[in-house]
Write a structure and sequence with these properties.
The chain folds into three domains: 101 residues, no CATH class; 99 residues, no CATH class; 74 residues, no CATH class. It has five helices and 17 strands. α2 runs antiparallel to α3. This is Vacuolar protein sorting-associated protein 13 VPS13 adaptor binding domain-containing protein.
Length: 331
């Protein structure tokens, strides 16, 4: 990557920002509640301005120390030595000032203070007080993306989607709302426009921990069409004993069959039922390959095959090997 490429990439972001205003942070809120965010100040008589972030919304953010920013503005009226001015600007961006204070609006919990977002990290904060013997938790994930640090507040029950289809969750979020994560069950389906119903089984977090691997079937609205099946794997820290009492889990969704191409050229593939014909033009200079069985419920009569054979216009055959492996549950 050249300097010109970097400027072309960064320049698009710079040109879309207001003159003199840079927002190095982006705060996202998929908690299920409106979120009030303010900069934490060490001065008791100075309260940082609160900003409201609605559920499933985001706002740009930057830290400003009110006292140091005032000194910077005053210093512009005088002639200062370059070294003094430089050290002053460095103090404005001091990491000790980069802490947040948040309040979950319309909720019963107290404010959460001292949230540092200086470094990329994943931190879990307990919410006080506890109710009915349950201490709910808030997860803060800080990570850099496209030269902006995204700070995401959400529950500890998340549903990463590793399929090629957009997925809907009852409640409409890839992170289950905080209280719903503990007390309620969830249902899953592909995007409603694809014509599939919600899965029949409602999933509770305790069942997901007890049985971490399962197949989720979503029936088609058109009964003549097959159901959409997804493989769901519950990922959690097995050394964390608190998982038995509170959902600190990821429910990772994957396709039942994943195909990885390790060749040096592109391929086209079709997954078909035996006996189904299809129209295929193939590649330029190549015919389509022979069929290979990759999954079967009758291995004696139809065993799984580990080789594909292609043939070009001159009759030269190319043998491609197929390697099957089970995806590790920890991934």
């Amino acid at each position: 990557m050249t300097g010109t490429d970097i400027w072309g990439w960064e320049g698009k972001n710079v040109l879309h920002q207001k003159c003199g205003i840079v927002f190095p942070y982006l705060i996202k809120n998929p908690t299920g509640y409106p979120l009030k965010v303010s900069e934490e100040s060490e001065e008791k008589f100075h309260k940082g301005k609160e900003y409201l972030v609605e559920d499933s919304k985001s706002i740009p953010w930057r830290f400003e120390d009110w006292k140091l920013m005032r000194e910077v503005r005053v210093s512009k009226l005088f002639i200062c030595y370059e070294g003094e001015l430089t050290s002053l600007f460095q103090s404005v961006m001091s990491p000790t000032q980069s802490k947040l204070r948040i309040v979950l609006d319309r909720a019963r919990w107290e404010a959460v203070s001292g949230i540092s977002v200086v470094r990329e990290s994943v931190e879990v904060y307990p919410l006080c007080p506890s109710f009915d013997g349950v201490t709910h938790c808030l997860l803060c994930h800080a990570a850099i993306r496209d030269n902006v640090k995204e700070v995401i507040f959400w529950s500890t029950f998340q549903v990463p989607n590793n399929t090629s289809l957009p997925i809907e969750i009852s409640g409409g979020s890839c992170s289950v709302p905080i209280e719903a994560a503990y007390h309620q069950r969830i249902k899953i389906r592909p995007y409603s426009g694809f014509g599939f119903k919600w899965c029949k089984e409602a999933l509770a977090w305790k069942d997901l921990v007890k049985h971490p691997v399962r197949t989720i079937a979503c029936q088609s609205i058109n009964l003549e069409e097959p159901s959409q099946r997804l493989t769901a794997t519950t990922i959690y820290d097995k050394e964390d004993s608190s998982v038995r009492y509170y959902p600190k889990i990821n429910l990772r969704l994957r396709a039942s069959i994943e195909i990885e191409n390790l060749l040096l050229f592109h391929i086209q593939f079709y997954l078909l039922l035996l006996g189904v014909a299809f129209q295929d033009d193939g590649f330029v200079g190549l015919k389509h390959s022979q069929y290979a069985i990759v999954d079967t419920n009758n291995p004696e009569d139809f065993p799984v095959e580990n080789r594909l054979i292609m043939e070009d216009e001159d009759g030269l055959k190319i043998k491609l090997s197929l390697h099957f492996m089970r995806v590790p549950l920890c991934h």
